[in-house]
Design brief:
Blueprint: H1 3-13, E1 25-29, E2 32-35, E3 40-43, H2 46-49, H3 58-70, H4 81-94, E4 98-102, H5 105-124, E5 130-134, H6 143-148, E6 165-168, H7 173-179, E7 184-189, E8 192-193, E9 199-200, H8 203-216, E10 219-223, H9 238-241, E11 247-250, E12 261-265, H10 286-298, H11 301-321, E13 326-332, E14 335-340, H12 344-353, E15 356-357, E16 359-361, E17 365-368, H13 376-391
Parallel strand pairs: 3-15, 5-6, 5-7, 7-10, 10-11
Antiparallel strand pairs: 1-2, 2-3, 4-12, 8-9, 11-12, 13-14, 14-17, 16-17
Helix pairs in contact: 3-10, 4-10, 11-13
């Protein structure tokens, strides 16, 4: 089948909830994808940060294949080895107390919201359930996580949204404190606002918010759906900010391309969600968990150091291009934002036509989230395309 065949089939039978690019991918290897017409593309998007180890990574393929042939699902009424191993590894490497497994980022953040509200209800009773999030944040596409998202563009169509959210200004401690009135139970933040424009929060601000939350017994909720699992050069981004959250969400890259996610709770919060208070049928699925075990085993200290080195290399190379349309280069690890004065959507579209996958973020940012094990050869090939495209933009 050709690209045209696949696109026609999809347009006929799939809901048009995405503005899909006119390309259909058949296979991949490393950080390179191939469409149904045989054209190669360097992937600086990795499925929006999901394919953390790229394509065809043999240890991952072997582990997932073996688990699929052994035991694909039994539900959370029982234990499985891969699920238990992922939980043990996550807690050992983060200092968190325990884990609840979900399937994706929005669902994980829903669980984090529920835990925060139940913690406050159990301790203080009703009337203390509001959660403060930040302007320019993004927390998901469910009704509650849309309400938690601090971008007005998402607050339409699906009324009534879930109540109980307020918005403060990023890097403005006074704004957070003002929002934290007596009805507030938690503050929820991304340490780098990904969809908002790849905007890292100031370390002093984050630490001050953490201290303020501890003083008021407000839970500190950290959304690491995009920043976690090695993306920013540490296993979780909060480890670079010198804080210990009460609850952390994760998803995207954790299972290397399979639906997987969850939340981690600290000692104070580990028993808030008891039997019957939260559940999901597929959470901790053995096949996805087997993939997650490989991802976590791969992300050792040396590997994470290489993520930082590759990210610094990309940012430096883009800066050295001295392109007139580039106004800023920012990010951590292999989460890179390039602020441009041209249309970021047009730029990404032209990059795709020239054989490079990239993403947009915010109103003016080209976002790069390549596989964490991308080769320097693939980086250089992708940057060459990026340079050529941006040189031609006005």
């Amino acid at each position: 089948m050709t690209n045209k065949d696949i696109i026609a089939m999809g347009d006929e039978a799939v809901m048009p909830t995405y503005g899909r690019f006119q390309v259909a991918f058949e296979k991949g290897q490393g950080a390179t994808l191939y469409d149904f017409d045989g054209k190669a593309y360097i992937d600086f998007a990795s499925g929006i940060g999901v394919n953390s180890l790229g394509y065809g990574y043999q240890p991952w393929v072997d582990a997932v294949s073996k688990q699929a042939a052994t035991l694909q699902h039994v539900s959370n009424l029982y234990y499985t080895g891969p699920m238990a191993q992922v939980a043990k590894t996550l807690t050992a490497r983060t200092g968190m107390a325990n884990v609840f497994f979900a399937n994706g980022g929005g669902e994980s953040n829903e669980g984090m919201i529920k835990l925060a509200r139940k913690y406050s209800f159990d301790k203080y009773g009703q009337g203390r359930s509001t959660i403060v999030t930040l302007r320019q944040s993004f927390h998901g596409r469910t009704i509650s996580t849309l309400a938690a998202t601090g971008q007005d563009v998402f607050h339409n169509y699906f009324f009534p949204f879930t109540e109980g959210f307020k918005y403060a200004v990023a890097n403005d401690l006074d704004s957070v404190k003002t929002a934290c009135t007596g009805d507030v139970c938690a503050v929820m933040m991304e340490l780098i606002q990904g969809e908002g424009g790849v905007l890292p929060l100031d370390k002093d601000f984050v630490q001050s918010v953490a201290a303020f939350c501890a003083e008021r017994d407000l839970l500190l909720l950290i959304d690491e759906v995009q920043t976690g699992v090695g993306r920013t050069g540490s296993l979780f981004c909060f480890q670079q900010y010198g804080i210990r959250p009460d609850v952390v969400s994760f998803a995207k890259g954790i299972a290397g391309g399979l639906p997987f996610g969850g939340i981690m709770a600290n000692e104070k919060c580990k028993s808030v969600l008891g039997p019957g208070t939260h559940a999901t049928t597929f959470g901790g699925n053995p096949v996805a968990a087997a993939g997650a075990c490989v991802v976590l085993d791969t992300l050792d200290d040396a590997f994470l150091a290489s993520v930082n080195e590759k990210g610094a290399y990309i940012r430096r190379k883009v800066e050295e291009m001295r392109l007139p349309v580039v106004q800023s280069v920012r990010g951590m690890g292999l989460m890179v934002g390039i602020g441009v004065t041209c249309s970021h959507k047009d730029a990404v579209g032209k990059m795709l036509q020239s054989g490079l996958l990239a993403l947009t973020a915010g109103s003016d940012t080209v976002r790069l989230l390549p596989p964490l094990n991308i080769s320097y050869e693939e980086i250089d090939a992708g940057l060459a395309v990026l340079k050529t495209v941006l040189e031609g933009m006005t």
